[in-house]
TrEMBL record, chain A:
Segments traversing the membrane: 314-333
Name the UniProt record assigns to this protein: General transcription factor IIH subunit 1
A biological process term (GO) from this entry: nucleotide-excision repair
Organismal lineage: Eukaryota, Metazoa, Chordata, Craniata, Vertebrata
Cellular localization per UniProt: Nucleus
PROSITE patterns: BSD (PS50858)
GO cellular component entries: transcription factor TFIIH core complex
Cell wall biogenesis/degradation listed as a keyword: no
Subunit structure, as described in the record: Component of the 7-subunit TFIIH core complex composed of XPB/ERCC3, XPD/ERCC2, GTF2H1, GTF2H2, GTF2H3, GTF2H4 and GTF2H5, which is active in NER. The core complex associates with the 3-subunit CDK-activating kinase (CAK) module composed of CCNH/cyclin H, CDK7 and MNAT1 to form the 10-subunit holoenzyme (holo-TFIIH) active in transcription. Interacts with PUF60.
The protein's role, per its UniProt record: Component of the general transcription and DNA repair factor IIH (TFIIH) core complex, which is involved in general and transcription-coupled nucleotide excision repair (NER) of damaged DNA and, when complexed to CAK, in RNA transcription by RNA polymerase II. In NER, TFIIH acts by opening DNA around the lesion to allow the excision of the damaged oligonucleotide and its replacement by a new DNA fragment. In transcription, TFIIH has an essential role in transcription initiation.
Keywords: DNA damage, DNA repair, Membrane, Nucleus, Repeat, Transcription, Transcription regulation, Transmembrane, Transmembrane helix
Organism: Hucho hucho
A UniProt-annotated Pfam family: BSD
UniProtKB/TrEMBL annotation, chain B:
Record's protein name: General transcription factor IIH subunit 3
Major location category of this protein: nucleus
GO molecular function terms attached to this record: zinc ion binding
Species this chain originates from: Hucho hucho (huchen)
InterPro entries: TFIIH_Tfb4/GTF2H3, vWFA_dom_sf
Record's keyword terms, sorted: DNA damage, DNA repair, Metal-binding, Nucleus, Transcription, Transcription regulation, Zinc, Zinc-finger
Alphabetized Gene3D superfamilies for the sequence: von Willebrand factor, type A domain
Function: Component of the general transcription and DNA repair factor IIH (TFIIH) core complex, which is involved in general and transcription-coupled nucleotide excision repair (NER) of damaged DNA and, when complexed to CAK, in RNA transcription by RNA polymerase II. In NER, TFIIH acts by opening DNA around the lesion to allow the excision of the damaged oligonucleotide and its replacement by a new DNA fragment. In transcription, TFIIH has an essential role in transcription initiation.
Biological processes, Gene Ontology terms: nucleotide-excision repair; regulation of DNA-templated transcription
Superkingdom of this protein's organism: Eukaryota
Subunit field text: Part of a TFIID-containing RNA polymerase II pre-initiation complex that is composed of TBP and at least GTF2A1, GTF2A2, GTF2E1, GTF2E2, GTF2F1, GTF2H2, GTF2H3, GTF2H4, GTF2H5, GTF2B, TCEA1, ERCC2, ERCC3, TAF1, TAF2, TAF3, TAF4, TAF5, TAF6, TAF7, TAF8, TAF9, TAF10, TAF11, TAF12 and TAF13. Component of the 7-subunit TFIIH core complex composed of XPB/ERCC3, XPD/ERCC2, GTF2H1, GTF2H2, GTF2H3, GTF2H4 and GTF2H5, which is active in NER.
Pfam families according to UniProt: Tfb4 (PF03850)
């Protein structure tokens, strides 16, 4: 039964587990369930052991709660009280939701991490077996370097990337006709987030109205219906929750223009000269006649331009990087052709061609033929040539192929002997077969030895230069580790190799590496002694 | 041995160095191994290749100092059996007709070639690069004339006697790279002095280079080392490849150098730095 000191936070009756009626108790540190009428708990889980909880979907007849443990097991609890099942289940769920995070085992995470690393990398696993299990170095030293690397990775991945906003997100919503004179807008959470980031006024309105006054669906319907959303924001007289937004937007745009733009590439400042002022016909210092005399079309044009600019500036402002170049801005800028140099990208220039040097050859045959290494040339006298040619002519004139007597058997067998392994021509072959002469398991063991020795030597050499007392201790410890490794691993391997009559010196290099480490340690030690005395 | 299907044609082109000056001198040096013996050995090799598989093809080019001449197949081959009947030396030993006809042709052609030889003092080098180029062209032509569905694997075997000609370096390298592009192996069997060019050729194209210690056993070396084609060679234990000296020669002294200076305009190599390129 529950210990008397345990505080019971919640008791739920009529909870079935494995088709048995019982009672569910939520305590300070664990959750437990006991069957009806019995004193003991048959099921008890510490919150620390529970990985997560799951609930059955709303529509189902059975109202259930499932607890999934770290080990993978799960326990199903069925709330069977007719009247209060849902309320009970939700109460239990909420309580668990509050309690579980407190107990999540932190230390487990590290262990899981280590296990994962060992399982993923067989080389690492082998290294671990060789070094830590055989107690050559301690586990902390082994994990010292590795875990730190991984933690950095994790922290990096925790910084979620800021998702940018597509400038066309509003257009991408793409309403579909409903069949009967209506429009369907598909809103995803991405689009909603983009709208909120671009138009903070809308976000404000959302916060004010949902879920108190309107449901989300109604809010968005109104949003799309309102002329705030549509091109011509002329009829702003409608009673609309969004009419304020328009005014807020204008205020925001004006302040942004006032501030100027930091990045000259997105040169809104130049826009201010011409087009923005047109859009601001009503608020600018231009004569007021311009406003009233404007036709409706002009008004709508200026409104559109204003809205485009505002949209673009809001999108840009929402991003931390100022890289997006709106095509609208580009059009305006190119029309003005001022600040031309600002909009040029050097790397998009056509390749002007590098400065080339004309090829003037003084010795063109040297260029076309290249030099020929000086080789001893045989000098034949012309007399020799004449003699040779005559001789060969004479010989070939009477040539008759005699294929049955091409060579004698003794010459053939001597040639074969020369070509057989070990023969005159095959000497180079003998030296190449070392990896065929050494059995595979010996090779594998050598690889493991090398990896382990490399790891130890890395620890050793990383201690130099020895600046701190910690490094001094570590260097001494590593020296003893190296010796221990040599005794326990290297010597037996050597003996084994010798027993197999392999004459090749497989461990020479390893021994050299160790010896060099010992020499370095010795030198350092003597220097330290001399400094002390 | 891999059973070659009907669809695979293996073409061997043997380029024999018949430099009359070298062979003439050789007759005085070593009377037991003359050009006749060499040609005999080459014929044995050619016959063996033809006999290995019915679809094997053969070509033999004689590399002379004045020309490169096809000893086999010759142009008169296609002109019908009439020619063959006239000279029918149907050898009475029941040899495969193709082989006996081929051998006769080869003998005939080499006699004609040698009788045409004129003595010229300034042309003493074997035209090896030209012969190799002809070989490549022949292989290309045969590859084009294949029936649909047939594949061809070709290789060139060079039997080299005289020394390298340094002036042919550029042409040689072009030939080598062209062969490499076409996946044509170049093997080399060198009788007398090592040839750096052929070593490079074998290394680049993946062929075998061998300098044989005993010239009179040439036939044995040819059959043992060069008769198997590249697929079969991977199953056999053959002489290991030689270390090739790829060093370039500097333009000023013509010494082989390992580290040098290169002009960025004309790519001439010098062993000492000088701000002005002399090319």
């Amino acid at each position: 039964m529950a210990a008397l000191s345990e505080e019971v936070l919640l008791v739920v009756k009529r909870v079935r587990q494995r088709k048995q009626d019982g009672t569910l108790y939520l305590m300070a540190e664990r959750i437990a369930w006991g069957p009806e009428g019995k004193d003991r708990f048959t099921v008890s889980h510490l919150y620390a052991d529970i990985r997560c909880q799951k609930i059955s979907p709303d529509g189902k007849a059975k109202i259930q709660l499932q607890l999934v443990l770290h080990t993978g097991e799960s326990t199903n609890l069925h709330f069977s009280n007719e009247s209060t099942a849902l309320k009970d289940r939700d109460a239990a769920k909420d309580l668990l939701q509050q309690l579980l995070p407190k107990f999540k085992k932190r230390a487990n995470k590290e262990l899981e991490e280590k296990n994962r690393m060992l399982q993923e990398d067989p080389v690492l696993f082998q290294l671990y077996k060789d070094l830590v299990v055989c107690q050559v170095i301690s586990a902390e030293e082994f994990w010292a370097n590795r875990l730190s690397i991984n933690n950095v990775d994790h922290s990096l991945s925790n910084n979620k990337q800021e998702v940018g906003i597509s400038a066309a997100f509003l257009a991408d919503i793409r309403p579909q006709t409903d069949g009967c004179n209506g429009l369907r807008y598909n809103l995803t959470s991405d689009i909603i987030e983009s709208i909120f980031r671009t138009y903070p006024a809308v976000k404000q309105k959302y916060g004010e109205n949902v879920p108190h006054n309107l449901t989300e669906k109604e809010f968005w319907t109104r949003f799309f219906q309102s002329h705030y959303f549509h091109r011509d924001r002329i009829n702003t007289g409608l009673q609309d929750i969004f009419s304020e937004c328009a005014k807020l937007d204008e205020k925001g745009l004006k302040s942004m223009v006032f501030q100027g733009v930091k990045n000259p590439m997105v040169d809104l400042l130049s826009l201010e000269d011409k087009s923005l002022e047109e859009g601001y016909g009503s608020n600018s210092t231009a004569p007021s006649t311009s406003n009233t005399n404007k036709t409706v079309k002009e008004n709508s044009n200026s409104a559109i331009i204003k809205r485009f600019n505002h949209h673009s500036t809001m999108v840009l402002a929402a991003l931390t990087l100022c890289m997006a170049l709106c095509t609208i801005i580009m059009c305006f800028l190119s029309k003005m052709s001022c600040h031309f140099y600002v909009i040029e990208y050097e790397d998009l220039h056509r390749e002007n061609g590098k400065k080339t040097v004309a090829l003037n050859l003084k010795k063109s045959d040297r260029y076309s033929h290249g030099p020929v290494p000086l080789l001893p040339q045989q000098y034949t006298t012309s007399q020799d040539i004449v003699n040779s040619v005559n001789c060969i002519k004479h010989e070939i004139a009477s040539y008759k192929p005699c294929l049955t007597q091409v060579m004698s058997s003794s010459t053939a067998s001597s040639a074969i002997a020369a070509l057989s392994p070990g023969g005159v021509l095959m000497q180079a072959l003998a030296q190449q077969a070392i990896n065929q002469m050494v059995p595979n398991d010996v090779q594998e063991e050598m690889k493991h030895l090398y990896t382990a020795a490399g790891e130890l030597l890395r620890h050793f050499w990383s201690c130099f230069p020895v600046n701190t007392p910690f490094l001094e201790e570590k260097v001494v410890k590593m020296r003893s580790n190296l010796e221990r490794f040599q005794m326990t691993k290297l010597r037996p391997f050597q003996e084994k190799v010798q027993r197999q009559y392999l004459s090749t010196n497989l461990t020479g290099h390893l021994e050299d590496m160790f010896q060099m480490a010992y020499n370095k340690f010795h030198a350092w030690q003597t220097r330290r002694m001399m400094r002390k005395t | 041995m891999v059973m070659a299907s009907e669809d695979e044609v293996s073409l061997l082109v043997i380029v024999v160095d018949v430099n009359p000056i070298w062979w003439g001198q050789q007759a005085n040096r070593e009377p037991q191994f003359t050009l006749s013996k060499c040609l005999d050995a080459v014929m044995v090799m050619g016959n063996s290749h033809l006999v290995m598989t019915r679809t094997n093809k053969l070509a033999i080019i004689a590399s002379h100092c004045q020309e490169s001449h096809f000893l086999y197949p010759c142009k008169l081959w296609k002109s019908g059996d009439g020619h063959g009947d006239d000279n029918a030396s149907t050898s009475g030993d029941g040899k495969y007709e193709l082989l006996s006809v081929a051998n006769d042709f080869i003998a005939e052609e080499i006699k004609n070639l040698m009788s045409r030889t004129e003595v010229k003092g300034n042309q003493t080098d074997t035209l090896l690069a030209g012969s190799l180029a002809k070989a490549l062209c022949y292989i290309h032509r045969v590859a084009k004339e294949l029936e649909a569905g047939q594949e061809i694997k070709s290789r060139i075997l060079v039997v080299k006697a005289a020394e390298d000609c340094a002036l042919q370096y550029m042409n040689f390298m072009n030939v080598i790279f062209a062969a490499q592009k076409q996946s044509i192996l170049i093997d080399a069997c060198v009788l007398d002095s090592d040839s750096g060019l052929l070593q490079q050729a074998c290394d680049i194209t993946g062929g075998l280079y061998l300098k044989i210690p005993q010239k009179i056993a040439l036939a044995q070396y040819l059959l043992w080392v060069f008769l198997p084609d590249s697929d079969q060679r991977s199953q056999l234990v053959l002489p290991p490849p030689v270390h090739v000296d790829y060093r370039a020669a500097c333009f000023c002294h013509r010494n082989l150098i390992e580290i040098g200076y290169v002009c960025s305009v004309c790519l001439s190599i010098f062993c000492n730095f000088s701000p002005i390129c002399t090319t």
